[in-house]
Amino acid sequence: MALIQTVNLTKRYNEFLAVKDLNLEVEERDIFGFIGPNGAGKTTTIRILATLLNPSAGRAYVDGIDVAKYPYEVKKIIGFMPDSFGMYDGMRLREYLDFFGAAYKIPRKRRRAIIDDVLALTDLTGKADDFVNSFSRGMKQRCCLAKTLIHDPKVLLLDEPASGLDPRARIEFRELVKTLRDMGKTTLISSHILTEMGDMCNKIGIIEHGTLVAAGDFRKILSQLSQTQEIRLVVLDGADKAALVLEQTPGVENVDRSGNEFQFEVQLGHEDLAALHTGLFEAGVRVLFFGEDEGTLEDVFLQVTKGGL
Ligand SMILES: Nc1ncnc2c1ncn2[C@@H]1O[C@H](COP(=O)(O)OP(=O)(O)OP(=O)(O)O)[C@@H](O)[C@H]1O
Ligand SMILES: [Mg+2]
Questions:
Q1: pLDDT tens across 194-245, in order?
Q2: Which of 23, 31, 292, 309 has the most CB atoms in a 10 Å sphere around its CB?
Q3: Which of 11, 14, 16, 212 to mutate to test the pocket of ligand 1 (most atoms within 8 A of CB)?
């Protein structure tokens, strides 16, 4: 049974249709990437799931519970991290977390240990006694995530949680989400950036103009959407030989060379790609890098979402 499910979920703001007949399914322990351009309807959907907004039509369920009918039941099992959040003046991090712990009615005796756990998990232990308002944006984002975890929710709804994080913090954040998955949590996480989701999400849904344009297993979607794969090849030496091998391989197209670096499109299966790699080796080319170009993901995104608000 899906932990998050929407059935023909629709949200209208006056005349404007922000979400149209959306059907989402997120299974237990999924890390589901909810991806779409600005104004696609991600926040609207997430806020409905978080019981903060009523749907105009259709239904949404978290762990089988109808969010519109039983918001208080749903609130207990979700951790919602909004895309923007305020902090409190004159509050230290530990007090801040204690405040939310109390709001979730966690007994005082247990709170201290839980707060220590959450601080450790979000790597904020050293900051426990600092004022939250003095934190940088990235640190505030981490505090907000810590707060989101305080009542040990089953389901995490994270609206662009990584947007203000530096590269290291993003990597750490991805690891944290995976750790939470290993702890049994189910996560829906929104982003504009498809590339960022690859290393973290097992499933994705791409939304545009309130409609789901693609959803399912991350790799499957990619292969469905992009018939061609963009490959980057960097050689230590033998670049001319490499150029010849590429030229002679059927299925290799649009070869773009700059010195020892090549970029080309292939319409090849894994077997053929492996054979191409062997062919380069046998021709005496010393390969430094042979792999899918990161840009492919962005191309897919641009291809699927037509743009325009
Ligand atoms: N309270 C509101 N009243 C009227 N229109 C709204 C309201 N909230 C959102 N919208 C509109 O609904 C659409 C979807 O907005 P939403 O915030 O869900 O998009 P999003 O995918 O989260 O975008 P972003 O990536 O910019 O965060 C947008 O066109 C937006 O202008
Ligand atoms: Mg949004």
A1: 777 878 999 999 999 999 988 988 877 777 766 677 899 999 999 999 999 9
A2: 31
A3: 16
Domains 4-223 and 226-303 share a fold: no
What element of type H or E holds 271?
A: helix 270-282
- Quote the pLDDT of residue 193: 79
Which residues are in the CB-under-5-Å shell of ion ligand 2? 42-43
Q: Where are the domains of the chain?
A: 4-223, 226-303
17-33 pLDDT per residue, tens: 999 999 999 999 999 99
Q: How is domain 4-223 classified at the architecture level of CATH?
A: 3-Layer(aba) Sandwich (3.40)
Tell me the ligand closest to 45's alpha carbon. Answer: 1
Centroid of ligand 1 to alpha carbon of 18 (angstroms): 7
CATH number of 226-303: 3.30.70.100
Quote the ligand 1 centre to 8 CA distance (angstroms): 18
Nearest CA to ligand 1 atom 3: 13
Output the pLDDT for position 225.
67
What does each C-alpha distance from 145 to 54, 133, 228 come to in angstroms? 24, 15, 38
Distance from C-alpha of 207 to C-alpha of 205, rounded to nearest angstrom: 6
